[in-house]
Amino acid sequence: MKMSAKIRFFFQIALLISISFIAWRAEVLPVKTYTTADGLLRDTAGCIKQDSRGFLWFCTSDGLSRFDGYGFTNYTTDDGLPHRNVLDFLETRDGVYWVATRDGLARFNPQGKRGATMFISSKPTDNPEAKEIDSLFEDSRGVLWAGTADGLYKVETAENQIIFGRVDLPKDRPKIPLPVSAIIEDEHGNLLVGMDFGQGLNRIFPDGRVEHFATRRGQNNNESIKTMLKTSSGEIWAGMSLEVGFCS
């Protein structure tokens, strides 16, 4: 039996409506919003990191919040953080938690109690501008690097002390600071260090040699590197202040 033209028309309309409804339902994702009313320290977070146990860590301007799937545990200057403004968070491969703040670097003390003993903190002493720790990175050799508001530092620990070793990097603009905005490692073990304020890109080889790349476009146009990503194929992408750049 053949279907009449009118029935076919209404069938097609019903099918389109069903498909549209399914597509609309697929686009509506279940979103739960968390705010200070739920225990988060601030309604905005500068970065979100997940540790090896599945906890989420939120860097805020009032401290560090940890989310376990049910509620928040907060850490502030009352617990030993050197500054309320937390800029980055890193768990190393051996399970150590590091917290970058606007006034130094803090190492979480899991045996500490609520109060001023939960964090061991320090900051570079050779340059007051470098007290602001903006980015943290652990390379494939287990070396911890700290990108600051004025320079790159290699971080080591000894007897509960944090030791900073400055890495000399070239400047495209000698009269202004050398802020590190992003750190990543390529597939050859070279460290790529992206700079803000139009200070270029530096590649640090395992033997310590430094190769510098300028990011200037035009006579008076210095671009800044804001973020970097390594793809599964080993390509390095750099997000620029004016355009997206590609580094390989």
Distance between the termini: 64 Å
Supply the helix-strand structural class.
Answer: mainly beta
Rg result: 24 Å
Mean pLDDT equals: 85
Please indicate the percent range of residues in DSSP E strands (runs of 2 or more).
Answer: 35-45%
Low-pLDDT parts are 6-11
Strand order of the largest sheet: 1-2-3-4
Brief rundown of the structure:
This protein is mainly beta and 248 residues long. Helices cover 9% and strands 40% of the residues. A four-stranded antiparallel sheet has the order 1-2-3-4, with no helix packed on it.
Please write out the topology.
Blueprint lengths: L4 H23 L19 E4 L5 E5 L2 E5 L4 E4 L10 E6 L5 E5 L2 E5 L10 E4 L10 E6 L5 E5 L2 E8 L2 E7 L12 E6 L5 E5 L5 E4 L5 E4 L11 E6 L5 E5 L3 E4 L1
Antiparallel strand pairs: 1-2, 2-3, 3-4, 5-6, 6-7, 7-8, 9-10, 10-11, 11-12, 13-14, 14-15, 15-16, 17-18, 18-19
What does this structure look like?
The chain is mainly beta and 248 residues long. Helix content is 9%, strand content 40%. The protein has a four-stranded antiparallel β-sheet, with no helix packed on it. The longest helix has 23 residues. The radius of gyration is 24 Å and the shape is globular. The N and C termini lie far apart (64 Å).
